[in-house]
Design brief:
0% strand; mainly alpha; 87 residues
Length: 87
């Protein structure tokens, strides 16, 4: 698997894990969603840098790889989990 593919799949996995973390923080610690949205962005940047270094991909390219996938999957998973757990 190429470095860019590793970064992409790493972000897919990270988005699901971050969605689970986000829902735990929201439901158990009563942290509002308006606070958790910027947290997801910060975590995205950290994950992108980490995956870029580990996969030997340029940092700028690493941030652009899978950005849409990360945010859509993270928010969708977060919404589904919230709906399921609060219904």
């Amino acid at each position: 698997m190429k470095g860019a593919e590793k970064v992409w799949w790493g972000k897919v996995l990270a988005s699901i894990v971050i969605a689970i973390l986000t829902i735990i923080l929201q439901l158990n610690l009563n942290i509002p969603a308006s606070t958790l949205l910027p947290l997801g962005v910060v975590i995205y940047i950290i994950v992108s840098d980490l995956l870029s270094v580990l996969s030997a991909v340029d940092r700028r390219k690493g941030i652009r790889i899978g950005i849409f996938t990360y945010f859509i999957l993270w928010i969708t998973t977060w919404i589904f989990l919230y709906t399921y757990l609060t219904a």
